[in-house]
Write a structure and sequence with these properties.
Layout (H helix, E strand, L loop, with lengths): L2 E2 H7 L3 E3 L11 E2 L1 E4 L11 E6 H4 L9 E5 L15 E5 L5 H30 L4 H12 L3 E5 L4 E5 L8 H9 L4 H8 L5 H4 L6 E4 L7 E8 L2 E9 L7 H40 L6 H10 L7 E9 L6 H15 L4 E4 L2 E8 L7 H13 L2 E5 L9 H17 L6 E3 L4 H8 L12 H13 L3 H10 L4 H8 L3 H15 L6 H19 L1
Parallel strand pairs: 4-5, 5-6, 6-7, 16-17
Antiparallel strand pairs: 1-3, 2-7, 8-9, 8-12, 10-11, 11-12, 13-15, 13-16, 14-15
Helix pairs in contact: 3-4, 3-8, 4-8, 13-18, 15-16, 15-17, 16-17
Length: 518
């Protein structure tokens, strides 16, 4: 990589002046640096020359060269008159020797990057393993390297055995994975917001999490994270050239990982693509879907559910989605977990008609809580061609849960069907019109008199008009309940034998509950 005048200006915190370089021009290459001496006739066109402003007053820059001017006195525009002169003005605190030393360091860095790139390229041609690549990286960078996959589980390291006073590295090397506290802090780090915005972020600084600073290189394929290569600032500070070398090493690791993963990665991609095609309704022929299911080896149990998992902390990153994808794959022991429209979608097959038992659902809710996620679950279905429709149910369950302020991390569409139907009427009519007159009368009376006739009637209907069970559920005496029921009939002329009326009363109660949340 060439050293440009723009790069020199950046490291010296200088600015272009007069007829000098454009702020966005990165094409002027510099091959050397020297002190300006007017007596020298052999100024080279691709060199930059250092001169003080006080010396420039007595001289004219009659050469079409690049100059670095130290502002040891104010600049007079008349001092630079020659067309074609590219000049950088730097602060008076710089001296010529320091400027030359700093720019020469740039050339040394570029030579080091170029030499390292050749070695990394040769290693790829020779078919180096991931471990051999990390060993080469440790040799080139002089600081320990640690490679983990998208679920932050250990893959390989180099130089990590000689580290002291770094508990998180010691934990990972001994346990084989990153601890949960560290993983959570990394995946919600505000410094990763650029990744959310779709920028190609290749390296990320992690500070404050370890005892040493750590530069993390993202191992990517088509902007999909495969792994993370961590460079610990342990033996010496990490330089800009180290960053460039780490990025090249990540590219090499990405190629090696793909070769190592081979067909399993391809199979996973094919099944992911198949499920996404079903969600996008690009496949609808039942026989074709069943054939793809067979080809891709999706040996599913007969009972199917669609789950949609949303990350509630909006500081999530693309990397965090892939991290959580692996977490939920491990939890359900299923590969049918995909990333779709910024959320995780799971096709879960089960032997029984229940999605999970009570203990498993409690564990699932704890996992959602740990990762700040909420899940929507569809009704049961039996054919893959119904996947899209039930995905919509799970997605609607999430939205309905928000509207109705449902507590907990799991929203089951089975429990939200009636609210969904009622809310669907909002575009057609005022849903207050769905409330039965009996419910309106009793609700108004309870609010005015402080009675609880509506609660009593609903409990009585829910217990199939069993007086004993209803009195027990309301914690009232049997005779008290009988008095209330008789009084309700007197006030509303309610016919308790009319099943249609009783259904409308239950529906009206649901409408009232929904209105209270809106």
């Amino acid at each position: 990589m060439a050293v440009t005048l723009k790069k020199i200006r950046s490291v010296l915190n200088g600015r272009s002046i007069k007829m000098g370089i454009d702020e966005n021009d990165d094409t002027i290459e510099i091959k050397g640096i020297d002190y300006f001496n007017e007596q020298r006739p052999d100024l080279l066109p691709d060199y930059a020359y250092v001169i003080k402003m006080s010396e420039l007053v007595q001289r004219r820059l009659d050469h079409k060269n690049c100059f670095i001017i130290i502002a040891d006195q104010p600049l007079d525009e008349k001092d630079i008159r020659v067309s074609g002169t590219n000049a950088i003005l730097v602060d008076k605190d710089w001296n010529p020797e320091t400027v030359v030393k700093r720019v020469r360091q740039l050339f040394e860095d570029q030579y080091r990057i170029g030499n390292s790139s050749i070695k990394i390229l040769e290693s790829c041609q020779k078919g180096y393993t991931i471990q051999q690549l990390l060993d080469l990286g440790y040799q080139l960078l002089g600081n320990p390297l640690l490679l983990v996959d998208v679920s932050l589980c250990f893959i390989a390291h180099s130089g990590g055995n000689n580290i002291n006073n770094e508990p998180l590295w010691e934990w990972t090397l001994s346990k084989g994975y990153v601890n949960k506290e560290y993983a959570k802090s990394v995946m919600t780090d505000e410094s990763q917001n650029e990744i959310d915005e779709g920028k190609e972020v290749l390296v990320i600084w992690e500070t404050g999490l370890l005892n040493h600073r750590q530069l993390v290189g993202r191992v990517l394929k088509n902007n999909r994270p495969l792994a993370y290569l961590k460079l610990l600032e342990y033996h010496h500070p990490i330089s800009e050239s180290d960053q460039e070398i780490l990025i090249m090493l990540c590219h090499a690791v990405a190629m090696t990982m793909e070769d190592a993963n081979g067909s399993s990665h391809t199979a996973s991609s094919l099944s992911d693509t198949f499920l996404i095609a079903l969600l996008n309704q690009k496949m609808y022929d039942h026989k074709a879907i069943e054939e793809r299911e067979r080809i891709y080896g999706l040996k599913l149990y007969k009972n199917l559910f669609a789950l949609v998992i949303r990350i509630d902390n909006r500081q999530n990153t693309n990397d965090r989605l892939y991290y959580l994808k692996r977490i939920y794959q491990n939890f359900f022991n299923r590969q049918t977990v995909i990333i779709y429209k910024g959320q995780l979608v799971i096709l879960l097959d089960t032997i029984t008609a229940e999605i999970q038992n009570e203990r498993e659902m409690a564990s699932f809710e704890n996992l959602l809580e740990e990762n700040d996620c909420t899940a929507g679950i569809s009704k049961i279905f039996y054919h893959l061609y119904d996947f899209c429709e039930h995905y919509k149910q799970a997605h609607n369950a999430l939205n309905l849960g928000d509207q109705l302020k449902k507590p907990g991390r799991i929203r089951n569409y089975d429990e939200l069907i009636i609210p969904h139907m009622i809310l669907s009427f909002r575009g057609e009519t005022n849903i207050k019109n769905l409330i039965h007159p009996v419910v309106k009368i009793l609700k108004d009376l309870d609010e005015k008199k402080g009675s609880n006739f509506l609660e009593t009637l609903v409990a009585y209907i829910n217990h199939n008009q069993d007086t004993t069970l209803t009195a027990k559920s309301l914690h009232v005496h049997y005779n008290t309940l009988k008095y209330r029921i008789n009084r309700i009939i007197e006030l509303t002329e309610l016919d308790l034998s009319d099943s249609e009326t009783l259904f409308n009363i239950q529906l009206s109660v649901k409408v009232n509950e929904i209105l209270a949340c809106l």
